[in-house]
Amino acid sequence: MDKETDERLTAIETKLAYIEDFINKLQTVSVEHTQTLDILQRENKMISEKLHDLTDSLEDIPNRRPPHY
C-alpha cells in the first residue's frame, strides 16, 4: 500500500474508534435514563394512588360543609 492509502485507512480507523466510544457512552446514558424513567413512573403511580385514596377518604368525612359555602 502506498503512504496516502495507509494514512486514509488510519484516519478512518481513528474516526471509527471515536464513533464506537461515543455509541458506548450513549448506550450507557440511555440505560441510565431508562432506569430513571422506570423509577419515576413507579413513584408517579404510587403518588397518584395515594392521592386517590386521600380524596376518597375526604368524601367520608361527616359534617362536611356543603359546596355552596
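The above is record 1. Record 2 follows with the same two-line structure.
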Amino acid sequence: MIEKIYDRILHRNPGEKEFHQAVWEVLESLEPVFVRRPELLDESLIERLCEPERQIIFRVPWSDDSGKIHVNRGFRVEFNSALGPYKGGLRFHPSVNLGIIKFLGFEQTFKNALTGMPIGGGKGGSDFDPKGRSDAEVMRFCQSFMTELYRHLGEYTDIPAGDIGVGEREIGYLFGQYRRITNRWEAGVLTGKGVLWGGSQARAEATGYGLVVFTGEMLRTRGEDLEGKRVVVSGSGNVAIHAMEKARQLGAVPIACSDSGGYVVDEKGIDLELLKEVKLAERGRLSEYAERSGARFVSGGRVWEVPCEVALPSATQNELDHGDAATLVRNGVLAVGEGANMPTTPEGVRVLREAGVLFGPGKAANAGGVATSALEMQQNASRDSWSFEHTEARLTEIMKHIHDLCHTTAERYGRPGDYVAGANIAGFELVEEGMAAQGLI
C-alpha cells in the first residue's frame, strides 16, 4: 500500500528527487504505524501530508551595481499549518528549485512538530547567489524579493527565518522592506533579526548548540559523553562553528571542518575565534584560516577521511554518502548528528545504522534553530527580551525533550535506538493528531 501511495506522489511531483527522497524516508518509517492504525491509509492522510497547502513562485528582478538587470526566481512553500502558522527559513543559493524547497518544507513540518511549539512547516528562497555581491546588491535583491513575498506573510500566517545564504544582514534588508510596504512594526513576521531590533539572544548559536546537545544525549544512552571525543564537522558557517563551540564547552575537541575548497585539520583543536573572524566577519575561505593558524589544509578531498568519534554533517543535503559512512565506521565513529537538512544519503544512513552507530536525523538533531526562532516569536509577542542564559536554558530543555520523545517513540514501536524511526513517527503522530482534530484539511 505504501509503495502505491509513493508511486502516486512520484507521478504528481516529477523530477523533484530531493522531495521524493524525503517522502520515502518518512513513509518507510511509518509502516508500523499503519499496521496498528490501518484506518489512516483510508483517510488519504499521507496524500494530504505530502501535498503543500500553498506553493508560491514569483519573479525577482533586481539591478547590480553597474545597472545591469537580473531576474531570479523566488519560492515560498507553505506546507502544513495544522499545529500553527507556517515557520521555516529562506535559502538563497544557486541550487534552489521547487523540489528542494518542497523537500525542506516537508521536513520542516515534522521538525517543528517535534519541538512541541505551536508552529507549522514552510520553506522558501531563491536561486540568487549572494556570494561576491556587494551589500547594495544584496539589499536591492532582498527588497525586490520582499515586495512580492510580503503579501503572503504575517505573524499569525507565515514567519520566515534565515537559512543558507540568508543571515542577519539579509533578514535586516527583508524586514526593512516589509516595514516600508506595510507601515507596521510587526517584529514577529521574521525571525533571526538583530537583537537590537527584535531578535533573540542565542539565535545565531541555536542550531549548532542544539545539535551538540542532542548528540550528547544520544551518547548518554550508551553510557558515554562528549568529554575528550574528537569531533569532525562539515561546513564552516554559522551552524558548524557554533557546533564546534558547544562541543568544546562540553569537553570535546573539534579537529576538522570544511568548505567548498577543501578542509582543515588541527589535532590540537580548531581556533574558533580565528575561524569566526575569517568565515563570519570577513566571509573568507578556509585556506586563509589555514595560512593564519598553521592548520593543515587539504584541497578538495572529503573531511570524513579524518578519524573521529563524533561526526556532524552541517553543510548541505546528500553530502555524506555510503563511502564516507564506511570510512567513518572504519575509523571508529560512535555518533553522527545531522546539522544540515538530510545531509546523509539513504545508503549512508544504512551503513551507519547497520554498524550500530548512533544516528541523529536532521529533523530532530538540528531543530534547535527553529526552536529558538519560536522563542524569538514569544519574546516579540510579549514585547520582551530574554538573557542569553535564559534562552540557552530553554533551548537545552527543548532539545532534551526532542531526544527523549524520539527515543521513547522508537522503543514504543519496537525500534530501540532507531532515531530515524522515532523522529519520523513522533512528528507524524503530532501532525496527524492536529489535522484529525480540525476536520478535512
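The radius of gyration is 21 Å.
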